[in-house]
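Hello again, I could really use a second opinion on something today. I owe you a coffee for this, so here goes:
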Amino acid sequence: MSRPVFAELAGQQRVADSLIAEVDQGNPTHAWLVTGPPGSGRTTAARAFAAALQCTQTPAGCGQCEACKQVMAGNHPDVSFVSTNKVAYQIEDVRHLITRAQERAGKGKWRIIIIEDADRMTERTTNVLLKAIEEPPAMMIWILCAPSPADVLVTIRSRCRAVNLSVPSATDVADLLVRRDGLDPQMAQFAARVSQSHIGVARLLARDEKARERREKVVTLPLRLSTLPQAMAAAAEISTLASEQAEAMTGSQLNAQIAELRHANGLGEEENIPPGLRGQFKSLEENAKRFARRATFDALDRTLIDLTTFFRDVLSLQLHSGIGLINEHLRDKLEPYAASQRSEKTLAQLDAINETRQRLAANVNQLIALEALMARLLSKPGRR
């Protein structure tokens, strides 16, 4: 990239050039909507843009001045990074942001608020934000991040300048992992391919052997399903693993938040909580439960995305598409499976996974949804 703060964007030179031009002309639009598929680098782009706006050097975006370093580290006093551990943003969360937006920039050139996962705002919550975006204070910039423009109300979209990120190539992602994280080039290329160029997932897979093992177990699941009892057992295993992963994340975060709240109020680890503070601690626990539900859904959805890659590769082989396999390392197992059934069956299996993702998003019982899916994924060998 032409400016150091944009170096972590993989394959997004066009976007970087556009944002740099906006910074250099010195009068940026007051509201932005950064969209792109999961893993494309929405938040990274927003963070780099904020750093360039606050940069004290010329040309802006040096990555070395104090302002750039603070923004990239997430601790600049005039740049707020907002995310939610809940299923959706609450109206109270947005009202707090609106109040913060009225504050004058103290150290930097701009007051900037970056809202991650803006698609998690309900219509009522978004309407509360609308007026603040329509009539922002001087030197105030909103940056909203979402998977696609359609995920945000049209009233918000029409008041924001659009920045659309594309899915980077596996080569671009691998190069980033090697350059930024010092990873082995071969491992980086493997992780970039099987993650389908999702930068965050690729980084996790490249660095965590257990994460690679979990993915391998999921992707090869169809090879082990031949009876209904096996299908039911697989559904229970996936459901349990997702719940345990969410509970582990929630438990560690909740313990850290409780310890921080105790310290802030001068309470020891074993000291009883005074009645006047019990509401705050109860609120933490309720938020943790909401986060656990979201984390469970996210874990299940990622599992189903990984499972989709198996049948995508199978269909590619059946149709002789010539497209590279996501799971190239499993080709010896994928080819016999592809030869054992018709392409219509594979398409039906892909549809079943997509329908299950939609059902889980609608908050149906996860175990029942997974059992129904696994039953539909059962392989019935036969001639194509």
Notes: DSSP finds 15 helices and five strands in the chain.
